[in-house]
Automatic annotation (TrEMBL):
This is Cell growth regulator with RING finger domain protein 1. GO terms for cellular component: endoplasmic reticulum; nucleus. It comes from Anabas testudineus (Climbing perch). Residues 232-261 are annotated as: Disordered. Residues 285-320 form the RING-type domain. Keywords: Cell cycle, Endoplasmic reticulum, Growth arrest, Membrane, Metal-binding, Nucleus, Transmembrane, Transmembrane helix, Zinc, Zinc-finger. Gene3D superfamilies: Zinc/RING finger domain, C3HC4 (zinc finger). It is found in: Endoplasmic reticulum; Nucleus. It holds the Pfam family zf-C3HC4_3. Able to inhibit growth in several cell lines. Residues 238-247 have a biased composition (Low complexity).
Length: 336
């Protein structure tokens, strides 16, 4: 009976021809798109097909110690009342704070460090700015010193704001540098430069860190920013709101955020794990829901899969970005 019905439909209904041709077109198009690497619905894929037959290259990481950490202290902040800063250093350091530093002067100093003039002492950095700032304060920070420093402009300066937007001056630039010559030979990171917004009469955005850079003894400059995001972070990442556009782009590393423990890994030296990841490595892989997450995908920086699943994916399971390479989340010998 069914055969008679199909034969009748085949002979008298043009819809049958249209349906067959449409089905053949959809299947053929899906096969062609899948052949060239485009995403196709899972139902149209072969049961034995894997998304990627080429294993994801693994990036090698080298741990580098960053002796500096700087964060905003508690309490209100303003140009007239000042701001509190708290530093955490592994070695004795000098904290130099420049109020109203010209944007172009700071960029010129950072470029000078990259092009031969090594800024390894507070005096070098101050000379590189060519006195293009309103006021400078300096503090000596001990290795066990956790005290908050109160930074403020003298009343006789008569400064209540730094002009309308877009501004030519950063409200505050804080520079941490090693105080002892022996320590400069011990660490690859020789300085931390932090640009801070302080609210004033013209721009009342709350106090916050705008940019933070690390200077190395080899003359490199890196921007400090988060290395990777966990699957629970919702994919939100990016620098804080800023009143100025960032300086010309430099080769950037991915590193631990402001106020984190002073350990850093770059590209070839990138941050291994943040402290909460070390405490929470039992999070389940988003794919198999069985093994612990121990792979970070690059360049999207999502930490969401295990060693077994990473080889089966060409795209990140979280954001669908192409996976170029990955690295393993493993504890270093000192953290076992």
């Amino acid at each position: 009976m069914a055969a008679v019905f199909l034969v009748t439909l085949y002979e008298y209904s043009p819809l049958f021809y249209i349906s067959v041709v449409s089905l053949c077109f959809v299947v053929t198009a899906a096969m062609v798109l899948g052949w060239f690497g485009f995403d196709v619905p899972v139902i149209l894929r072969s049961s034995d097909e894997t998304e990627s037959t080429v294993p994801t290259p693994e990036k090698q990481m080298v741990q580098v110690t960053n002796p500096f950490a700087l964060e905003l202290g508690s309490g209100p902040a303003s140009v007239t009342d000042g701001v509190l800063l708290r530093s955490c250093c592994l070695e004795p350091c000098v904290l130099s704070c420049f109020w109203g530093c010209e944007v172009s002067a700071l960029q010129g100093a950072l470029q000078a460090h990259q092009h031969g003039l090594r800024l390894s002492t507070p005096q070098h950095f101050q000379e590189a700015l060519h006195l293009r700032y309103h006021y400078c304060q300096s503090f000596h920070i001990g290795s066990e010193d956790r005290e908050e420093r109160h930074l403020h402009l003298p009343v006789d300066q008569g400064i209540t704001d730094f002009g309308p937007l877009p501004r030519q001056h950063y409200p505050l630039v804080a520079v941490l540098m090693l105080a002892e010559p022996e320590a400069r030979d011990k660490y690859n990171i020789v300085a931390s430069v932090t640009v801070i917004h302080v609210p004033d009469d013209k721009y009342r955005l709350s106090a916050r860190v705008l940019f933070q850079y690390l200077l190395t003894s080899q003359g490199s400059m890196y921007e400090l920013k988060p290395l990777f995001m966990s699957a629970d972070s919702g994919g939100m990442s990016g620098p804080p709101d800023s009143e100025q556009s960032s300086p010309p782009s430099e080769p950037t590393i991915e590193a631990s955020g402001v106020g984190q423990r002073p350990v850093l890994l770059e590209e070839g030296k990138e941050e291994e794990e943040e402290e909460d990841w070390l405490e929470g490595t039992n999070k389940d892989c988003v794919v198999c829901q069985n093994a612990a997450v121990n792979r970070v995908l690059l360049p999207c920086r999502h930490a969401c899969v295990c060693d077994s699943c990473v080889s089966h994916f060409q795209h990140c399971p979280i954001c669908r970005a192409f996976v170029i390479e990955s690295f393993s989340l493993t504890r270093g010998p000192a953290e076992q």
